[in-house]
Amino acid sequence: MKNKLSLKEIFQGRFLGLGITEIIPRDPGSKKEFAVISIRLIRQVSATPLKKSNPTIAIMTPRVLNRFSKMEENQRIFILDAVLKKDIIFLILSGSLSIPGFLKKSMTMNNIPVAASEYDEYYLRSILKAIIREKLQNIIYLHGVLLEADGKGVLITGASGIGKTTAALNFASKEYCWVADDVVVIKKNAKGKLIAGGHRKTRDYIHTEITGIIPAAGVFDMDRIKRNTRLAAVIETAKTDTKSILLTKEKKEILGMELPCLRVNIPSAGYFDKNLLKKSLELLFKDE
């Protein structure tokens, strides 16, 4: 299920997470809506017109920006027109704290919003891709382990090495179904339900520190492995300075849907194990 949104709707509340230090205009609120947006890196200066493509958010590197700043004004205007006019709907300067005056003027004349970000072009591109996926395609990628417990999908998140995969392996082999490890892809379907599964590149595999990467089919019977499940709850694990394990029920919003969430704070020397997973599931679903 795809959405059609304006830039204002896509980036509502997201500029801080993009490392934005300056933006012109302050509210890039064009009423024009987009169903598809591409991300393009501008890594070289060229007067050759770009091929026509989807509406595009362009990321200009510091090297290219520096070259533009040293050009004669007429040459700069000519090349900027060739580089930016083709389907560019938003320009972001990577590794920058401010927007040069010449670029503010050019972008204002072309009615294209421009921003400066402290992040490098590759990190910036990855964040932008995630935002576009979430906002336009209703898809997000999260790091974690996904199980199906009594027909309900449960996502377990937390830092690598905290014990998520090992706990889930011990549990799924006896009582529940295994769905995914490492990268979990969550989509909202046409009925507004959250459907979660593994990424196509990793969904057939499991990784632990002891075994390394192994096929899921070598661990579970096929009837214990599922391609996807309806996501019903989240368990968030974290190591903290607490002296004892602390379990707190909360709510977590994913793709506009509110899900029950259990935050599991574990002492720094502890791990998330199968007993803690069992207790977490009981707390999450005890009223059902």
What does this structure look like?
With 288 residues, the chain is of the alpha/beta class. It has two domains: 7-137, HprK N-terminal domain-like (Udp-n-acetylmuramoylalanyl-d-glutamate--2,6- Diaminopimelate Ligase, Chain: A, domain 1, 3-Layer(aba) Sandwich); 139-285, Rossmann fold. It has helices at 7-10, 62-69, 73-84, 101-109, 121-137, 164-172, 274-285, and strands at residues 20-24, 38-42, 56-60, 88-93, 114-117, 139-149, 152-157, 177-188, 194-198, 205-208, 212-215, 228-240, 246-254, 257-267. Strand 10 and strand 11 form a beta hairpin. The longest helix has 17 residues, at 121-137. The mean pLDDT is 88.
**How does the major sheet shape up?**
5 strands, mixed
CATH topology of the largest domain: Rossmann fold
Pick out the low-confidence regions.
none
Q: In which range does the helix fraction lie?
A: 10-25%
Range of strand content: 25-35%
Would you tell me the overall average pLDDT?
88
Number of helices: 7
The Rg value, from CA coordinates, equals 23 Å
Topology (SSEs and partners):
Blueprint: H1 7-10, E1 20-24, E2 38-42, E3 56-60, H2 62-69, H3 73-84, E4 88-93, H4 101-109, E5 114-117, H5 121-137, E6 139-149, E7 152-157, H6 164-172, E8 177-188, E9 194-198, E10 205-208, E11 212-215, E12 228-240, E13 246-254, E14 257-267, H7 274-285
Parallel strand pairs: 2-3, 3-4, 4-5, 7-12, 12-14
Antiparallel strand pairs: 1-5, 6-7, 6-8, 8-9, 9-12, 10-11, 13-14
Helix pairs in contact: 6-7
